[in-house]
Design brief:
The complex is a heterodimer of chains A (about 425) and B (about 300). By secondary structure, chain A is an alpha/beta fold. Chain A has helices spanning about 5, 15-25, 50-60, 70-80, 95-100, 120-125, 140-145, 180, 205-220, 235-250, 260-265, 280-285, 315-330, 330-340, 345-350, 355-360, 390-395, 410-420; strands at about 40-45, 65-70, 90, 105, 110, 125-130, 130, 145, 160, 165-175, 200-205, 250-255, 275, 290-295, 300-310, 345, 370-375, 380, 400. In chain A, the strands form four sheets. In chain A, strands 1, 2, 3, 4, 10, 11, 12, 13, 14, 15, 16 and 19 form a twelve-stranded mixed sheet that branches. Chain A has a three-stranded antiparallel sheet with strand order 5-9-8. In chain A, strands 6-7 form a two-stranded antiparallel ribbon. In chain A, a hairpin with a 5-residue loop joins strand 17 (about 370-375) and strand 18 (about 380). In chain A, helix 9 crosses helix 10 and helix 11 (about 260-265) crosses helix 12 (about 280-285). The radius of gyration of chain A is 21 Å and the shape is globular. The two termini of chain A are about 40 Å apart. Chain B is mainly alpha-helical and about 300 residues long. Chain B has helices at about 5-10, 15-45, 60-65, 80-115, 120-130, 135-140, 145-150, 155-160, 175-200, 205-210, 215-225, 230-245, 250-255, 260-270, 275-300, 300-305; strands at about 50, 55. In chain B, a hairpin with a 4-residue loop joins strand 1 and strand 2. Classes of the chains: A alpha/beta (about 425), B mainly alpha (about 300).
């Protein structure tokens, strides 16, 4: 197990995970490229890996993007254990607490990023339209800057080097079936309302699911957390206890882990209320089934993903990766993502590539003046419809907390298993 | 394989011993590379410490200790601790699935072996049994979901016939659906070995039993069952090891809210808690080995084969 570590010179010997990494990496045939042709291996979740984006980028620059699609958990796992198996990583900000200390990521030089200063203040300052938003959990502003290019530490104040360049982000809330609930839903507390016994579901990704549960606990007035994204052991106990009680009372129909699972649960009517992701709500709707992404008075749980560069990337590939990031922030991809219901990191450039009526619907919360179509031409909303949650400022301004990795992560996972086993 | 023969009239035992070693070498090597070494690594990692992003090779028993933490008393909710609770639920599924698959598997094998006369027909029916295996496990499992759901076909039928007023909820995401899926998926692992050992039963034994005045049941119980026990044992080992380690079926059919050891290990690996997962895996391995050891006490599998 020592051999592969030597190959990734300069890295901590104790970091045995990287030993496994080396083994994995050597299992992958070394990429040999002709001088002019660059292929970037893009590691991320399937959600963000759109074929159209790769095709457009190749048409524009000649650089090929090769998607490596794995789950959110596996993105982190590979970043920690197999840093040489990708050239560009697309991961969530909360994973950084695990990845950055390994030294497997290199700081991104913002001097080489054309639109770096236009990245929304949500990331750089934690503000939307000049107003601070909730920063509980792993808020991007806490982890976006590194002390230097090779640093394993986050910087408290802005520096030249960013850990990730934000790509997409959004704020999650409960998804409901208005046709089956038939009354307004306005609070996270409804998730555990016995009225929906046997018809509710929660996310079975422990670190995210527990935050949703915490939103419920706060909404029910059981406890006020100092930081929902970084609970104490006692707070974890309390949150899990609430979940176990609900589970024993038969509240949950199922737990879900995967995008499609949540779509199926909702579309089949097995579940009428559940924590949900915005594109999953869209997916239920395109099946012709009523589903809303319900704004709630306690606010949203936000998440954000971004591009990172592996520490070992160099030469032409590194230039190619920078070119891709620059291209990505240049508007075409941003507009594409905005039309899917996500938000793009640089709003100005995306706006330039969208029609005025699209921008008004997606970003300003105005009624659609004509039919709204997704990037692939599917009808998403008829003229006159208004986006759930309103404008960008309303939605992103309503962030209560961010997806996070807690200090007590190990204990939390153990307690979560207790919930699943109860 | 030639070892038992050669020992009888071996000119020089040492030459044969060398030959035997050579014959065993390829498989031993594969076994060593892909089983023993990884297993040793897992055992080693299970003793390591870790944090969010690295494994620390310092021997500690904390992973094992944390598995059994709180197991000496009931939790606040009156449950056993997670580990015991999970093992109990896994054992429950094991027992249910094992007995049902055994019953069905034995019956099907018996029918194929003794009631179907022509060997062509036997082959045709046997292939028919394996046919579902041409699609993937997960697909076969998921296809139950629209059938058993709240608005699924079964509930529509029951309500249409006026048998129930409200949709039956326990059909899906319940112990019932988990056992159903397991039985559907793994009965074949019982049928094949039992059928195989039944085909090797000397038919004259059945005639002898009948001549001696044994009834059908007596023949079945005193002749067929004892002579098929190798098959039963092999089938049982398949089914039990699969159910003990499963996390996909229990996850999909149980609505992700039924615990299994496999599921816990999977969650731990996805959170980079490899040492905890390794400790869990070692314990699971020990438990499964004990079950198999217990089973092989009942049948001397080497002698029977």
């Amino acid at each position: 197990m020592t051999d592969p570590i030597d190959s990734s010179a300069g890295l901590q010997r104790r970091t045995l995970l990287q030993g496994t990494a080396g083994i994995l990496a050597t299992g992958i045939a070394p990429f040999v490229h002709a001088q002019e042709k660059i292929v970037l291996r893009y590691l991320g979740t399937a959600v963000n890996q759109d074929k159209a984006i790769a095709e457009k980028f190749k048409a524009d620059t000649g650089i090929e993007i090769q998607y490596v699609a794995v789950t959110t958990d596996d993105v982190t796992k590979r970043a920690v254990t197999a840093p040489n198996s990708f050239d560009l990583i697309d991961t969530e900000f909360f994973s950084l607490k695990k990845i950055v200390p390994t030294g497997n990521l290199k700081g991104i030089d913002t001097k080489k990023i054309k639109n770096a200063d236009k990245i929304t203040t949500l990331f750089t300052k934690g503000e939307v339209a000049g107003k601070a938003v909730g920063d509980q959990g792993t808020a991007p502003k806490k982890v976006i800057y590194l002390e230097g290019e090779k640093s394993k530490k986050f910087a408290a104040a802005p520096t030249q080097f960013m850990s990730l360049i934000p790509t997409v982000y959004n704020a999650d809330t409960l998804g409901i079936r208005p046709d089956l609930i038939k009354r307004p839903i306005g609070s996270w507390a409804e998730l555990l309302n016995p009225e929906f016994k046997g018809k509710a579901a929660i996310l079975n990704i422990p670190s995210i699911g527990i935050m949703d549960a915490a939103m419920v606990v706060e909404a029910k007035g059981i406890h006020k957390y100092k930081d929902k994204g970084n609970m104490t052991k006692a707070e974890i106990d309390l949150t899990i206890k609430t979940l176990i009680e609900a589970k024993k009372a038969g509240q949950f129909r199922a737990l879900w882990k995967d995008f499609n699972e949540s779509v199926n649960l909702m579309a089949s009517g097995e579940v009428v209320i559940q924590s949900m992701w915005s594109p999953a709500v869209t997916a239920v709707r395109t099946k012709g089934i009523a589903c809303s992404f319900q704004p709630l008075k306690e606010g949203y749980r936000a998440w954000a993903a971004g591009f990172g560069l592996p520490a070992t990337l160099s030469g032409k590939k590194l230039d190619g990766a920078y070119e891709f990031i620059n291209w990505f922030l240049d508007g075409w991809a941003g507009a594409y993502l905005n039309r899917q219901g996500y938000y793009s990191a640089v709003l100005d450039t995306a706006k330039a590539k969208m029609e005025a009526y699209e921008w008004a619907y997606w970003m300003e919360g105005k009624a659609a003046s004509q039919d709204i179509k997704g990037p692939n031409g599917d009808l998403l909303a008829k003229a006159g419809a208004v986006r759930d949650g309103g404008s960008y400022e309303q939605r992103m301004g309503g962030i209560a907390c961010w997806n996070a990795v807690m200090d007590e992560n190990e204990y939390m996972v153990r307690k979560w298993n207790e919930f699943v086993a109860a | 394989m030639s070892a038992p023969n050669s020992s009888a009239h071996a000119p020089s035992p040492s030459v044969h011993a060398v030959k035997a070693w050579w014959q065993a070498a390829p498989f031993a090597l594969v076994f060593l590379l892909f089983f023993l070494i990884p297993l040793a690594l897992i055992a080693m990692v299970s003793l390591w410490n870790f944090n969010e992003y690295e494994l620390i090779p310092a021997v500690t028993l904390r992973n094992y200790a944390s598995l059994f933490e709180g197991c000496s008393q009931l939790t606040d909710n009156g449950d056993l601790c997670v580990t015991l609770n999970t093992y109990l639920s896994t054992f429950k599924f094991c027992l249910l699935v094992w007995s049902i698959t055994l019953l069905i598997g034995f019956s099907v094998a018996y029918f194929l072996a003794f009631h179907v006369r022509s060997s062509t027909m036997q082959t045709v029916l046997f292939v028919l049994c394996t046919m579902p295996f041409w699609t993937s496990n997960v697909i076969r499992m998921i296809s139950w979901v629209p059938l058993l759901g709240r608005n699924g076909l079964v509930n529509q039928m029951l309500m249409g016939m006026g048998l129930v007023e409200q949709p039956v909820e326990w059909l899906l995401f319940s112990d019932f659906s988990v056992v159903l899926a397991f039985v559907h998926l793994y009965t074949m692992f019982m049928i094949v070995p039992i059928f195989n050992s039944m085909m090797r039963i000397d038919r004259s034994l059945l005639e002898a039993a009948s001549d001696a005045g044994a009834s059908g049941w007596q023949t079945l119980w005193n002749v067929v069952v004892p002579l098929s026990r190798t098959g039963i044992l092999i089938g049982s080992i398949f089914v039990i090891t699969i159910v003990m380690g499963d996390f996909v079926t229990i996850g999909v059919m149980g609505g992700q809210q039924i615990a299994s050891i496999g599921k816990i290990i999977q969650v731990q690996t996805s959170y980079l808690q490899f040492p905890l997962a390794a400790a869990n895996a070692m314990i699971l391995l020990a438990v499964v080995l004990m079950i198999i050891w217990g089973l092989t006490r009942l049948v001397d599998i080497r002698k029977e084969l």
